[in-house]
Design goal:
By secondary structure, the chain is α/β, with parallel strands linked by helices. The protein is about 35% helix and about 15% strand. The protein has six helices and six strands, in the order E-H-E-H-E-H-E-H-H-E-H-E. The protein has a six-stranded mixed β-sheet with strand order 4-3-2-5-1-6. The radius of gyration is 15 Å and the shape is globular. The relative contact order is 0.25.
Amino acid sequence: MELIFIRHGQGEHTLNLPSSLHIKNPSLTVKGINQAKLLWKKFFLKNEDIIFISPIRRTLETALIWTNNIDCRKVVSPLVSPRIFPTRTNGKTLPCDEIIDLEIIKRDYPDLELDTNVSSYLWDEGINTLPDSEYNKIAHEFIERLKLLNIHKIYVVSHDGTITAYRQFISGCRLSREDFLDETGWFEIKC
């Protein structure tokens, strides 16, 4: 199985750092929208493909723009929500990384499938501040679940810290913030 991790397009929360990190549910910027539109040139999706999407507005917007007019399976999952990388013991989730309320996702994105194989705690809190031992257990279970889908390529639209955390977990190689992807950058890894 190949996992293709794609970072979301430029979000409003990156325009005036560090104060813009306190924007709740930031959308894509015009640049981010254009970046998302270019993804279709990089990845030719088919209706049989599956994409896991972080339950954050900028990732949802990136995925929906990229998959416009493609009837592939789109699953929103807190297992690919923002993650602080590297983990900080007393890390706090910033407003820009708070998961959208499940009822709002159901209302605003009715065509997206929700990952019901996770606890309500993860839908509320996500994986952002989990200790590495808990995250590693969840990451292992998620990867094993993906393997059971028996699909050659699975796409994940997520965040720089989350993507780097999964890359480190899967590869066993020590990574740093220098390994973060650029906006709509991608990384492919075999599992």
